[in-house]
Amino acid sequence: MLSGIPLFPEQASTIAPAVDNLYFFVTAVTAFFALLVVVLVTIFAIKYRDKTGEKVGAPITGSLPLELGWSIIPFFIAMGIFGWATVVFFDLVRAPDQTLEIYSTGKRWMWRFQHLDGQSELNELHVPLGRPVKVIFTSEDVLHSLYVPAFRVKADAIPGRYSSIWFTATRVGEYHLFCAEYCGTRHSGMIGRVVVQEPGEYQAWLSGGGGLSMSARGEQLFQQLGCVGCHLNDGSGRGPSLAGKYGAQETLATGATVNVDDSYIRESILTPQLKLVAGYQPLMPTFQGLVNEEGLMSLIEYIKSLPGARPPATAAQASAAAVPATAPAQGSSPR
Amino acid sequence: MTTTVLPRVTYLNVRHGLASWLLTKDHKRIGIMYLIVVSLAFFLGAIFAAGVRIELTTPQGDFVSADTYNRMFTMHGVFMVFFVLIPVVPAILGNFVMPLMIGAKDVAFPKLNLLSWYVFVLGFSLALVALLSGGVDTGWTFYTPYSSNVSNSNVALVGVAVFITGFSSILTGLNFMVTIHRMRAPGMTWFRLPLFVWALYATSLVMILATPVIAITAGMLALERVFGFGIFDPRLGGDPVLFQHLFWFYSHPAVYIMILPPMGVISEVIACFSRKNVFGYSFVAFSSLAIAIFGFLVWAHHLFVAGISPYSAMVFSFLSFAVAIPSAVKTFNWTATLYQGAIWWRAPLIWVFGFLGLFLVGGLTGLFLASLGLDVHLHDTYFVVAHFHYIMVGGAIMGYFAGLHYWWPKITGRMYSDSLAMLSALLVFVGFNLTFFPQFILGYLGMPRRYHAYSAEFQVLNVLSSAGASILAVGYGLIAVYLLYSLWRGEEAGANPWLATGLEWKTESPPIPENFPETPIVNEGAYEYSKREIKVA
Amino acid sequence: MPDGLAARADPHGHAPASATGSGAAGHHPALQHHFQTLEQQHEVATLGMWVFLVTEVMFFGGLLMAYLLYRVWYPAAWSEGSLELDIRLGAFNTVVLIGSSLTMAFAVRSAQTGAQRATVRWLIVTMILGLTFLVVKYFEYKHKWDLNHIPGANFQFEGPHAHQVEIFLSLYFGLTGLHALHMIIGVSILAVITWMASRGRFSPQWNTPVEISGLYWHFVDIVWIFLFPLLYLVDRAHQLG
Question: From the CB of residue A280, how many other CB atoms can be counted at a distance below 10 Å?
Fold first, then answer.
């Protein structure tokens, strides 16, 4: 990459300059205080040096105004940093409404990425330039963490949960992809690259791969696993209809309500009795062991695509203009 | 120097033989016994650090295998955190000088104090057994489910070692707290207490409230490993992140167990060698308590990218900024203490200057990590590694050496070479910065921690870091040389070589077994240097 | 801070001159060398035990935190798991422990009034009650063992929430096991105290060991008073009513 010693990472996402500006500001503030103390200590140590060890210092015991001053001023400075950093953070974790979604699973010691159209890749992630991308991921074994330094984004992959990162790449190129959470022997080998391509190039790459789209694969699973026998679309089955349920509120047998999101669907497939929908019997068996993480993601994608739900993936692609909407999107926040 | 006749009977020569040490109830001898075991742990931890630094001089993992590397950094962390940083100042220096400082004959529970040492040694031995039978590869943080379900190393044994060692810490904290409450000499009011005692009091609070939680968490982990309990197992619906909450509920306050006592040492040394009252005594005292209390409310800042809700992240970020303030207040007060002092440049003070420089960097870089927007990028990178080494090694270990140099004449009755001590302080300071400052840059560049092999562009900074580590090793080695030499050839120190205030300097060096010939009566504050006529005998 | 900050002029230094000869005759045989007076020694021991009990609260607190989290997540599994526990044995043990607290209080009272034989008698009754608790607990564990309800590789459970019930039972064994360990330590301490009492070591002036053992014993009882409803009574009202 760079010759000599690199001092600063590449900026390759829309959020990176915001993070870096904050970094420079905090560096400046802390450098000021560090220098202030170092200079004062040096001056005092030299100016008031007593080589004999016999003299005594001035009878000073303290000063309330000074104490208040150096408590309150740093506090407000700290609050300033806190406020700024929090704003940046919310931009980092809240994806815009319209994103290109890519699913991923981490497992020792590789990352597998699954594009909606059916393309999948190992330890490599192709993304288009200038379009918000959201990577939704989980882990199949232990904790991992998906980290792209050039984009300044990172989130832990936790077994049994969905996490996500989002970014809009601003420069074509190849960037490091690291696992940042220690995961055993070959943790340092769980690396890869993110390839940012011009949108046209990306489309070409995407269509180069074969296979069914994720929602089609989800539909297949829906048939194979027998889900279709109970979850009839008209609601007359033994299980609730799933059409248009994604993103909606569902009332549970306990009277509580739950947001139908990725995590809830996953949980309902694996532990159906935990959050039973009101009005239905606890008949559904668990599918733990019968369907893997990628199968689950395909099923979720299929349920999303059912009519009444959010515009399916193809529509999302059509809106590639990608207005970075600021409305809060469903994050990966845990229960 | 003063040449007093060495007292005929001291705590060192009152009885002889190994049994007289192993069965002692004297807090001073127990302090020495901790010194020996902790030094051994420090040496082991340093060996592993050396292995890690050698491996990282080249990007390819070519010095040791990935498995060995993972075990090296884990054992480095386990030994350094649980067997060095936590006990180093409270159990060695605190044990030795705290009862002297408050004018007591011993701690409140001398037998319990000895028991703490044995418990500590038992935990340490188990960790050694774990090491000899292959070590552990989970990182010192033992995150589940890797540690509970996957790792094939000796996690349960180290879990039990941590569990047991925790009790040593709990018992020490309990002992100190009761001692400070109930064993003070007549006239030793709370606001006449030396600030080191205040710091130990705050530390005891943390030890008492936080350590049981790590003990039970390590216990749960061991149960999960040995009996297949499913508390953290995601396959049963257990939550691996719960482990992180419980772990950091202890391990974040544990950082304050490590840094508060050295902060107390700094107050003592800086007052002595400036010949002044500590500026803003009560602010420094209460900032220790504030740190101890706020320290309990910030644990989840280790989990900003571990899937906690953004709003709780916000709260924990706020509290993390808040806990920075008392530390800042202490630093400003120490600086102000120097103002218009009569500053006597002796080795302990040079170590304090080193502490100030490194602790400043460590503390201020904490602000980066408390900032949510920056932590996402910096979490689990070398930035974090550099930050906590600046606090724990730059802060805690520099503070420990400041204290060791300050009280060494009291402990042994001998003086060491002042110039060699200053030289080693300089070597450690320079070596430390060279080792760890490049790691801040590596961290911002995005190099993740715990990597056995890394991308080639990170090499130059890593080589710098390894070079610095070798200077650091020379600095630490030198300390051992001149301190041990002083035992043999050192000048006799006399009761009060630094002409310091404080009750510990009013008894002989080394102290008599009962500490004081008669119970001292206190009628002034801890640092009334400016009131007294200091005379050199 | 319990004892006022600056005002504390110290209980043990009224006569510093006489403190010089701390080894001199006239001191109580139980007074240890580093204390000035028996009162100071008593205060120290009592404060020490209270502080220790605080650490104990935190110790159980870690497990209770896990309990709380999963109870909120898996309420149905919690009531299922709870129904597996024998409420009659649990209730019996609760009564036994409350009774033992009463007898312990009698023992402390007897020690304070110097009634040596009564002290020994009440301590023995307390120990018997403690052992009764442990025996009952043993049969409860044995029953779980027979049913393969011990978490781990051999765990078997029929029901829709088997996995989560396994977590419940992990916590059940963790909490009650830790409590039983405290009971065993408690009974051992009482055995030593009983022996000391029978040798006439305590008097109205010096009975601190009995008193602080009592504090510990009451604490262990109180822990059970929390554990019993948390583990045995999760959803009984629904199931029985």
Answer: 15
